[in-house]
Each structure stands twice: as structure tokens, then as C-alpha cells.
């Protein structure tokens, strides 16, 4: 038993199938677990076969059908094949989670075009490819797609210009699909996790400054857990959310209320980027604008 099945029927999503990009680790894997716990069959996709197989073993222990597909979300043909394979193995897909993403801390003035494009390609284009490949499935099941956004979409964080641009694009894509696909009975929403403990994402973002500048800005005073994001994904996929579309739902303990100021100040004080001393722009005193 878990909090999820204490609160919701373990058969809430029985007879349905979910496809999750980036489902081999972190928040996306927790979402796969949660869907399996309430009876859904799940398919996970990512670039590393070994990682997917490890995750699939855990998921199979929960009893449902599990499929894996090695695919890079940047490759539209690979995504078509992954979605077809998943539907063959676990049945028509009624939930799609577009969760694959890449991130690193790098100041915009120092980032190569390829570095910026890589994150746009994985996060934004990857989400589009996933949605586009899944459309026929979603139309058949009158299903739902959930994108994974981030606070960087609407608050400016230092060294996250690429991620902010990608996630803002995802939010817009989500809203456009909600409008275009609503008439097919397809719902489109975005989950906006705050800092989630124990994840690759937070390992990268807290690397130089630790956790406190993040938790100080969170109204609830702590990191979230992958399971807390996953619970919202389950509710959003269920009939409980049958009239919810075009929504951007934060699971962030209230971080958005405080914004990015504390984290940005800590990065300035640390004066480091990628483990190296920065060029000084961030550690010098700011120019006085007013006398
Ligand atoms: C500057 C960097 C860089 C860094 C990579 N690049 N890391 N630039 N600083 N630290 C640049 C490279 O120099 C290269 O450009 C370009 O990006 C592509 O790098 P590759 O290593 O060839 O890319 P690839 O193998 O496709 O890997 C993608 C990746 C990698 C994003 C760079 O880190 C990855 O696979 N990440 C997946 C896991 C991950 O990031 N998880 C966290 C998701 S969390 P040049 O010009 O040099 O060739 C997340 C958090 C959101 O998204 C918000 C949390 C609050
Ligand atoms: P994670 O464990 O690194 O998850 C990212 C997953 O995406 C990995 O399983 C990775 O697997 C896969 N992936 C990366 N590039 C891919 C590609 N090109 N094609 C297919 N799969 C790819 O990170 P996480 O921290 O849990 O983040 C999960 C999601 O939550 C992301 O969308 C992230 O932006 C979002 N988010 C996280 C936080 C946080 O606090 N962690 C906060 C806000 C939003 P492979 O490398 O094997 O392909």
C-alpha cells in the first residue's frame, strides 16, 4: 500500500495504457510507478536500454504489462516507431507523458549555439514529436497528454536561458494543443514540478549552491518528492479531471510565489559556473545606477 492507493482506488486506471518519455529515471519513472499502482499498463522510452530495462523490472513487480522503447525524442521517426511498438504491446494509449529533458547550468553568453539547441531539441521538439506521434492513439482513446514544464518557464533563473526558453515553448505548445485537440476529446495539460529531492535535475541545479537557497523560497519549506508529482499526474489522467485542459499545474510547494531571487543571489555569491570561477561578471559589485 502507498499514499496513492490509500487515497485512490488501485483500479482507478485499470484497463488503460500510458506512454512516458524519459520514463527510465527520476520524476518520470515515479509517474510510471504511480500509473502501474493504480492499474494502468505502462510503456517507458529513453535513450539507454539498460536504464529502461532496470526500470521495467521494478515496474513489472507491480503486476501490470510493461513495455520499453529505446528512442531519442529528437528523432520523429524513432518516436513514431516507439509509440506504435508501445500500443502493440500494451494496447491503445490513453495517457502520454512528455517528460524527457536535458539540463545544465551555463551562462547564455558562454553557451554554444549547439548547447542551446540541444536543450530546445530534447525538451521542446521532443515534446512536439511525442505529441505528434501519439495523436492517432489519443484520438482513438479520447485520451490526455501531459507535458513536464518547469518554473524556469516564467521566472528567470541565472544560467537557465536555454531551459526557460524550452519550457516556455512547451507551455505554449500545451495550450495550442488543448485548443486544437479539444474537439477530438483530447485533454492537454502541463505539470510544473518545483525542486524535487533526489533527482538528476536538482543534483545539477543545486550543485554549487546547495539546497538552502531553494528551500528558503519554498512556502512549504522543503523539496518535493517524485511521488508528489506523480500523484498529480494520475489525478490529471483520471476521470476526476475530465474537464481540465489547457492548465499548467504547479506541484512546487509555493516556490513560484517567491520567484527566483534567492537562487540567483546564491549563484552570484558562489561566483561559479560549471565548477569554475566565472569571468567575474557575476562576482563584481553591481554598477550604481542612481547616485
Ligand atoms: C555548457 C554544455 C554543457 C555544460 C553540454 N553542453 N553540457 N555547454 N555547459 N555543462 C553543450 C556541449 O558542449 C555541446 O555543444 C552541446 O551542449 C551538446 O552536448 P552533448 O553532450 O553532445 O549532448 P547530448 O549527448 O545530446 O546530451 C544532452 C545533455 C546531457 C542535455 C547535454 O546533459 C543529457 O543527456 N542530459 C539528460 C539528463 C538531464 O539533463 N537530466 C536533468 C533534467 S532536469 P558543443 O558546441 O560544445 O558541441 C531539468 C530540470 C528543469 O530539465 C528544472 C528543474 C527545477
Ligand atoms: P532525469 O532523471 O534526468 O530524467 C530525464 C529523462 O529523460 C531520463 O530518463 C533520460 O534518459 C531521458 N532523456 C533525456 N534526453 C532524452 C532524449 N533525447 N530522448 C529520450 N529520452 C531522453 O531528470 P528529472 O530531474 O527526473 O527530470 C524529469 C522531468 O522533470 C524533466 O522534464 C525535467 O525538466 C522536469 N523537472 C524536474 C525538476 C526537478 O526538480 N528534478 C523540476 C522541474 C521540472 P536517457 O538519458 O537514458 O535517455
Automatic annotation (TrEMBL):
Keyword Transmembrane helix assigned: no
Protein name: SDR family oxidoreductase
This protein's UniProt keywords: NADP, Oxidoreductase
Pfam families cross-referenced by the UniProt entry: adh_short_C2 (PF13561)
PANTHER family: PEROXISOMAL 2,4-DIENOYL-COA REDUCTASE (PTHR43296), PEROXISOMAL 2,4-DIENOYL-COA REDUCTASE [(3E)-ENOYL-COA-PRODUCING] (PTHR43296:SF2)
